[in-house]
Structures are given as C-alpha cells and as structure tokens.
Design brief:
Number of domains: 2
Number of helices: 22
Protein name: Acetyl-coenzyme A synthetase
Bound molecules: ligand 6R9
Distance between the termini: 34 Å
Binding site for CoA: 193-196, 314, 338, 526
Oligomer: single chain
Low-confidence stretches: 1-7
Shape: globular
Domain Acetyl-coenzyme A synthetase N-terminal: 31-83
Helix content: 25-40%
Strand content: 15-25%
CATH superfamily of the largest domain: ANL, N-terminal domain
CATH class of the largest domain: Alpha Beta
Radius of gyration: 24 Å
EC number: 6.2.1.1
Strand order of the largest sheet: 12-11-8-6-7-14-15-23
Number of strands: 30
GO molecular function: acetate-CoA ligase activity; AMP binding; ATP binding; metal ion binding
C-alpha cells in the first residue's frame, strides 16, 4: 500500500472523553496497560484466575511450536461449570441469566439456578444419546434459550459444538456436518422470523441425505413453533421428551485447558469454509476478561444485550461464554429489528432496562435510514455503554449511535476482532480512552497488534498498511479443523512470526489504529491505494446519506475507478444535483483522487447474513459482469433491484 495516500485521508477530529462517573468506577484503569506491558504473560495468568479451575494452571503459554499455541496447558476446568454452577454456588441462583424475548412477543426469564437445571438435564440427554467427550455436535437453531443451553451442555460433556447459522441452507449445513464429522445434530422445528414461523428441521433432513453426513445417529429437536415437520423414527428425538426425564443435577468433569470447545466456520468469500478451532481455558479467559473490561460489566446491576445471532462468533463469545462466565444478566431476542415495527429494539431496551448494548454498524446505519424519530419514542436512559462490531463504523454512524441511542452521554466502544481471534483485540475502554469516532484505537491490555508495510516492518504514525498481531493471545484460534497447513498458509505465512488478519489499517498521528476494511477491498486508483471504508465514511458524513458501499471497477485510464452505491436517509428522494454534490463532498473530505466516478442511489445493499457489505457482488455489477456466488446473501433479490437501476447494465 502506498502510505502517503492513506495518510492524507480521514480527518476526523472529534474527541469524546470518558464520562466522569464511568471513569471513577471503571473495572479497568490505565494501570492495566502498564501491568500488561511490563509482564504480558503474568497479566494473562492473573486474568485466568477470573475462572474457577479444578486444577489451576502453573504454566501460562507454551509457544515451543509456533504458531501452535498452548495456553494454561496443565490446568483443568469445565467451561459450563464456569458459566453456570459457580454463580449458583456463590449465591446468585436467583439472578436472571437470560431474559428471552420471542419475536411474536412471548417472553420468559431464566435464572442461573434454572439454567443450571436445564443445562444439567441436557448434558445427561447428550450422554444418553451416546455423546462422549471429543464427539462433535452440530447445532442448527433459532435464537432461543435452548440454543444457549445446548451449547453449554456440549461444553459440559466435552463435546465440541459446531453452531451453523439457522438461515444457512441445507447445503451449507451438510458441508459443515461433514467437515466436522458430527455425530448428533440439535435443531428445532422452526423459529419466528419476520412475523412468521420459519422451518429449520426440513433443512436438517435434507442435509442428512448427503453421504458425508452418514455418521449422524441422532437429531434432537426442540419444539418452538409447533409447525408440522417430517419425522424419522429411531433417529429423531424431541428435546422436551428426552430432557424432562433426566436428573436435574449433573457433575461436570474437568477437561484440559486445551480441550476443544467449538468449531465455527467462517463464511469466507472463496473456497471451502474454514473450521476455526477454539479450545477451553485460554478462550474463556479472554472472553471473560474482555467482556468485563470493554463493557465495564457490573453483574449485579447491568443488563447486557448483544444483538448478534449465536451462529456467529459474536454470539458465541458475547452472548454465551463472556457474559455467562461473568454471571451477567442478558437479553436474548429471537427476531428481526423491524418486526412488528421499526422501534422493536428500542422497545426491548426500554422493557428490560438494558444498560450495555452491543450491535453492528449495519444495524446502526439501518436505524439512521429509518429516521431519528423512531428511537426518540422510547426511554433509552438506562443505557450506559454502547458497543460496535463487525465492520469499520463510519464516524457519522458512530456519532448518530452515541447521540440518538446513547443520549449524547454514553461511551461508544468500537471493538475489532475476528472469528479467528475469539475475543475482542482492539477497542477503546469506556472508563479510560478518549474516544475517536470511527477508530478501534488501542490493543487491549495483554494484546500486541500493529500496522506493518509490505515487508512486515511496522509503519510510522500517520501511515497505513496491514493489521498484524505480533504476540500470541489466549483466545487465538488453535488451527483450522483438520487442516494445519491451511492454518499456516492463511494466517502465518504473509509476515514472518506475525498473525496476518487480512484487514487494512492505519496508525494516526497519535499511534491509534483505524481499520480500513479487508485488504481485498482496497482500490488502486491512478497509483494510489484508497480504502473503500474511507470513501464510504466520507459519503455517510453527508447529511443525506445513511449508508454507502464503494468498489473499484476496472478502468482503462486509472487502473480502477471508484463506483459508489448509496442509500439516502429517512426515505429522502433523489434530488437534481445530488450526485454532483456528493462527488464534491468526497473531494472536499478526502481529496480529488478519492472522488467517485459513478454514484448510484439504491434502496438496499447486498450483505452477508452477518451484516457485512458484499463488495464483491457490487464489483460484478460495476464491471457489468455476471454475478458471482450469491448464496451467502441475506436477500438475493437485492441484486436484481440494484442491477435494474444501472443504466448500462446488460
Ligand atoms: C467479530 C467478527 C471479522 C472481520 C474483520 C474485519 C471486520 C470486525 C470490526 C471490523 C473494523 C471493527 N471487523 N469488527 N472492522 N472495525 N470494529 O465480526 O468476526 O465475522 O470473523 O469478521 O470483520 O474485517 O477481519 P468475523
């Protein structure tokens, strides 16, 4: 990447100091950075003591065979015990663990004591189905408490789970069942989505007709919607029938810290999905610590809500393992943000008095598009920390989030991490960091990350390059399931001794880190590297724009030319002269080189099911090509609408 061009871009100067009351009572202070810098491994050994170990570890990191790490290797623990039983033993059995809100409006609250009973029964149920430590279990579920219970039950018996997002196809499910050689599938008849029951079980039946799924002997089915479903006698078992007759007490067995906890497949834009493997002690240490530090969680008083689906890593780490290991009270919501109305999320915040909210830029930009008046109808004063994850957050979306959701008082933490990193890696701390809208800013205490150039040399402040992690961390992926070579090639071969994250980034004048999107998305215009993120953020900073996606289209004169797709705010109509105004606006914000050649107003953008913009498809449109694989799109009709708008499209 050419450093100068990036250094000139992005001129965000707004700053937000931590509110005095958050700073005064913060879980983590600036001293943690110093402690971790002085003795990084000692710092993590200290964090591991947040957990209850059957055998406390004496060893912190074994890095004798890099990049295959072992953390806390001689320690033993049970992850489920740490997320459930120990809170009951500490006298918090009556504390609500999960406030469940179903999409049709049904709700129920589960205390830690109830969670302990349900997880215990489910663990016995798995054992009755013949599941043994080390066996893989696939989970294909809606967002209901049984999903969390199923994951914890797997952890309890040492059976690594592989959660497959409920909206994935039978094909995607089959590939994942096959790759992990799963023995049992846990599913539901269906779940509620956009106001209607949506079936899940038929996709499982279809997946299990594939030869690769031949080793699946049982399908455990939760009844959620009550819809009619096909049934295979001898293989299919109702969850309620099997669990109800199990004992409500279960003694958890302690496993080695490096015992596999789960496999989670990354969507991956090309090739076979990668089964990211996470293990127990190090993973739980980091997700527990980061949830405590980044959200400043006070388990007695806070109500946490992470809006992600449990099928993504964000759901694994910040719905299941982080919050529950910390004894938090949290909200679990089944459905979509606009069912039955566009204010559903804010109604939920008001109903449960949510204090800590964790969501994605895509959701924030969608709310911007719907209009400021919608959150304004609800009482959101309980909120005290807001988090963002999944994509770079455009500064204007950050400001909107803080102002319209956070009442202009809450800190916003932009958390950078990946399925592979397991837990948050780079983020401001709400009681410590003076926040910069749009920047993840600083590696957390105990994390060493920086930006390097093509040769792997750290870039000076004010320059851009590639984000790398330079020291092992407790919740790092241990390998790609069944493919050590691919693990080495993908993450550890680009820069000697450093983890390559695949994201572009820059360091500002203070040395703070700004994420610039996937390296594959960087555009080359007349010899300048320009990040899609920066042009998108410049467009979103225009008052009429809610959301933007930018791609580089092949251009005979300039190598690539910038093509932007924009969504107008609050249903604003496209006015005469708007396109010229937007082009001039980008030129003013970033310089003439970043001015889009074409700007196309659209109603929707193509997104992956976890809400990330799929620029690859927009590039196909911009270059008048046949569309590539659209199977991971939330809604493939979006592409037809976009193509219909293009004057030159075939
Ligand atoms: C947690 C999660 C990982 C990729 C990552 C990056 C992007 C996530 C971000 C961010 C900028 C942030 N990403 N958080 N980019 N700022 N705060 O999303 O995991 O689904 O594996 O995606 O998401 O590009 O490399 P995963």
């Amino acid at each position: 990447m050419s450093n100068e061009s990036l250094a000139n871009l992005m001129t965000e100067t707004r700053r937000f100091a931590p509110p005095a009351e958050v700073a005064a009572d913060a879980n983590i202070t600036a001293a943690a950075y110093e402690a971790a810098a002085t003795d990084r491994l000692g710092f993590w050994a200290e964090q591991a003591r947040r957990l209850s170990w059957a055998t406390p570890p004496t060893e912190t990191l074994d890095w004798s065979n890099p990049p295959f790490a072992k953390w806390f290797a001689d320690g033993r623990l049970n992850v489920s015990y740490n997320c459930v039983d120990r809170h009951v033993e500490a006298g918090h059995g009556d504390r609500v663990a999960i406030h469940f809100e179903g999409e049709p409006g049904d709700s129920r609250s589960l205390t830690y004591a109830e969670l302990q009973r349900d997880v215990s029964r489910a663990a016995h149920a798995l054992t009755e189905l013949g599941v043994k430590a080390g066996d893989r279990v696939a989970i294909y579920m809606p967002m209901i408490p049984e999903t969390v219970i199923a994951m914890l039950a797997c952890a309890r018996v040492g059976a690594p789970h592989s959660v497959v997002f409920g909206a994935f196809s039978a094909d995607a499910l089959a590939t994942r069942i096959e790759d992990a050689d799963a023995r049992v599938v846990i599913t539901a008849d269906g779940g509620y989505r956009r106001g209607a029951p949506s079936a899940l079980k038929p996709a499982v039946d279809e997946a299990l007709t594939r030869p690769g799924a031949a080793n699946v002997r049982s399908v455990l089915v939760v009844r959620r919607t009550g819809q009619d479903i096909p049934w295979t006698e001898g293989r299919d078992v109702w969850w309620h029938e099997l669990t109800e007759r199990q004992p409500s007490e279960h003694t958890p067995e302690a496993f080695e810290a490096e015992h596999p906890l789960f496999i989670l497949y990354t969507s991956g834009t090309t090739g076979k999905p990668k089964g990211i493997l996470h293990t127990s002690g190090g993973y739980l240490t980091q997700v527990s610590f980061t949830h405590h530090a980044v959200f400043d969680l006070k388990p007695e008083t806070d109500v946490f809500w992470c809006t992600a689906d449990v099928g993504w890593v964000t759901g694994h780490s910040y719905i299941v393992y982080g919050p529950l290991s910390n004894g938090a009270t949290e909200v679990l919501y089944e459905g979509t943000p606009n069912t039955p109305h566009n204010g559903r999320w804010w109604e939920i915040v008001q109903k449960y008095g949510v204090t800590l909210l964790y969501t994605a830029p895509t959701a924030i930009r969608t709310c911007m598009k719907w209009g400021d008046d919608i959150p304004a109808k609800f009482n959101l004063t309980s909120l005290r920390v807001l988090g963002s994850v999944g994509e770079p957050i455009n500064p204007e979306a950050w400001i909107w989030y803080r102002k319209h959701i956070g009442g202009d008082r809450t800190p916003v933490v932009d958390t950078w991490w990946q399925t592979e990193t397991g837990g948050v890696m780079i983020s401001p701390l709400p009681g410590v960091t003076e926040a910069k809208p749009g920047a993840a800013q600083v590696p957390l205490p105990g994390i060493s990350a920086t930006v390097v150039d093509d040769n792997g040399t750290e870039v000076p402040n004010g320059s851009g390059g590639y984000l790398t992690v330079t020291e092992p961390w407790p919740s790092m992926l241990r390998t790609i399931w069944g493919d050590d070579q691919r693990f080495l090639d993908t993450y550890w071969s680009r820069f000697e001794g450093k983890y390559f994250a695949g994201d572009g980034a820059k360091k500002d004048a203070d040395g703070d880190i700004w994420l610039l999107g996937r390296v594959d998305d960087v555009m080359l215009v007349s010899g300048h590297n320009i990040s899609t993120t920066e042009v998108e953020s410049a467009l979103v900073s225009h008052p009429k724009i809610a959301e933007a996606a930018v791609v580089g289209a092949t251009d005979p004169q300039t190598t690539q030319s910038i093509c932007a797709f924009v969504i107008l705010r609050g249903g604003a109509a496209e006015e005469e002269g708007l396109i010229d105004e937007l082009r001039a606006h980008v030129a003013k914000e970033l310089g003439p080189i970043a001015k889009p050649k074409r700007i196309l107003p659209v109603d929707e953008l193509p997104k992956t099911r976890s809400g990330k913009i799929m620029r690859r498809l927009l590039r196909d449109v911009a270059e008048n090509r046949q569309l590539g694989d659209v199977t991971t799109l939330t809604d493939s009709a979006v592409m037809d609408l976009i193509q219909a708008k293009l004057p030159t499209a075939a």
